[in-house]
Amino acid sequence: METGGVFDSLLSGVCVVFTLGMFSTGLTDLRHMRMTRSVDSVQFLPFLTTEVNNLGWLSYGALKGDGTLIVVNAVGAVLQTLYISVYLHYCPRKRAVLLQTATLLGVLLLGYGYFGLLVPDPEARLQQLGLFCSVFTISMYLSPLADLAKVIQTKSTQCLSFSLTIATLLTSASWSLYGFRLRDPYIMVPNLPGIFTSFIRLWLFWKYPQEQDRNYRLLQT
């Protein structure tokens, strides 16, 4: 096997490992919900948006015939479905959660209908689906900026997860390189904001260490 082929195979494996590692960070929330039998301090929207993102990229991978995208997003969709199911089980206000779920899944179904029925050309469908997935992924990576502004305001990083930050950085970097190797801007470009926001989070962890936050709260009490 040529050097380029070996590198691409290794890069594909790295993308799978890092991405599944990022998805598995939700297991901490899953364990918390099962132990406390509540959804306190657990956010539902990230589970739902990641599910839609996985299903979108799964469709893109299937249309393109990319096994790496298919494996990662199929496993990711299963994990997010598990997280969503457990959240619904312990959530006291199921109506609002079900409404959010139905709304996003409705948008996803409309997208499937549009791409399947109104865009018959496979190449055009691949490009438009790639653009849709890219925009959705970029919005996911940029959505926590409001939380980062709150961290700066409160000078506390307690609402941030260091392990998730590292996982996001490694995942975004590997997929950006993967998209670059494939010359696929729909894979490369949307992961660049993930690198950018991860570095911002790391800077915040350095600026406002969590140990310092705990000491500050103890002094207040």
UniProtKB/TrEMBL annotation:
The keyword Membrane applies. Keywords: Cell membrane, Golgi apparatus, Membrane, Repeat, Sugar transport, Transmembrane, Transmembrane helix, Transport. GO terms for cellular component: Golgi membrane; plasma membrane. It is a multi-pass membrane protein. Interacts with TRPV2; the interaction probably occurs intracellularly and depends on TRPV2 N-glycosylation. The chain crosses the membrane at residues 6-23, 69-90, 97-117, 129-148, 160-180, 186-206. Belongs to the SWEET sugar transporter family. GO terms for molecular function: glucoside transmembrane transporter activity; sugar transmembrane transporter activity. PANTHER family: RAG1-ACTIVATING PROTEIN 1, SUGAR TRANSPORTER SWEET1. Mediates sugar transport across membranes. May stimulate V(D)J recombination by the activation of RAG1. This is Sugar transporter SWEET. It comes from Prolemur simus. The keyword Transport applies. Its main location: membrane. Pfam families: MtN3_slv. It is found in: Cell membrane; Golgi apparatus membrane.
